[in-house]
Design goal:
By secondary structure, the chain is an alpha+beta fold. The protein folds into two domains: 63 residues, Roll (SH3 type barrels), CATH 2.30.30.50; 47 residues. The chain has two helices and five strands, in the order E-E-E-E-E-H-H. It has a five-stranded antiparallel beta sheet, with no helix packed on it.
């Protein structure tokens, strides 16, 4: 995040970081997890440990200090984010279906809870 108050002195070699929305770098780095490998005169150089796209793993990119968040925050891979979004969508659809069936008297509340538990388990496997 630009203007975050973080400066070069906020980082040291080996720090784990997450790339925020880069202010002047390609957006494909957003969300990537990395490790600080060097600190330049204006930028922090980060090795992508788990990049947003696996093809960028191991790549070293440089960022303004305000573009980095301390620690590994969130899910870095775009493919994992998409999987999480689709799983949430499927879970919501199942929950809505159970609510409609319960309201219509087709199933009991207890049966609805059982169906939701089975559906959630199915989505995790």
């Amino acid at each position: 995040m630009f203007g975050s108050g973080r400066t070069l002195s906020s980082f040291k070699l080996g720090d784990k970081v997450t790339v925020g929305v880069p202010s002047d770098r390609p957006l494909y780095h957003h969300g990537s997890h990395g490790t600080v490998v060097t600190i330049g005169t204006k930028r922090v150089h980060v090795r992508m440990d788990k990049a947003a796209f696996d093809s960028h793993d191991g790549e070293v990119a440089n960022f303004l200090p305000g573009d980095l968040e301390p620690g590994h925050v969130g899910t870095p891979r775009n493919s994992e984010r998409m999987n999480d979004a689709f799983t949430a969508l499927k879970l919501a659809a199942g929950t809505d279906l159970v609510a409609v069936a319960t309201e219509a008297g087709v199933i009991t509340a207890e049966q609805g809870e059982q169906i939701k538990a089975v559906w959630a388990g199915h989505l995790q496997s």
